[in-house]
Fold this sequence. Notes:
With 199 residues, the protein is an alpha+beta fold. The chain contains 3 helices and 6 strands. The protein starts with 24 loop residues before the first strand and ends in a 34-residue tail after the last helix.
Amino acid sequence: MRYYNPDIHHRRSIRLKGYDYSQTGAYFVTICTQNRECLFGKIVDKEMILNDPGRMVEKWYRELENKFADIVCDQCTIMPNHIHFVIQTGVGADLRVCPDTGEHIGSPLHTVIQWFKTMTTNEYIRGVKQNGWSTFPGKLWQRNYYEHIVRNENELNRIREYIVNNPLQWELDRENPNGRRDKGRTHRCAPTKDEPWRA
Length: 199
């Protein structure tokens, strides 16, 4: 039997320490399915063809703007086993500092992502039961997600282009379990430092 050892069994946060994720800003986010299961459709002739689960994920992404008044959904691409999107937070929000806590009054990114994961997971489970969708291994989404704070307009435009063109690169995508870049590596849903959109 293995016992919990906090020195080796803890989960590290991949969030930027000290950064206020409720402040106004644009974020490039990637969320991957658990075990990189391809559940949302397939790439055909370098074009993403969404299945019913993929369309459901797209619907809940668009619903973020209705749930969170200070959110704007920007560019988005759903891939077979992950979603890339840009989200802008704090848009039109009351960005005054809360007098009791000193924190910004706005939707923190982690709250937005958690709501999105919960809504998509719940509807996916209904789809499995009612429509025969493929089952998923314990959880629909990986625990963590990748986020990048967009630094400026040029970087934002490069990220948008990267997202739109993502299906063209599926054969080389790190998230593609059958892709050419998958051999002999493990990957946890985080773009590398050499991504073409980086400033």
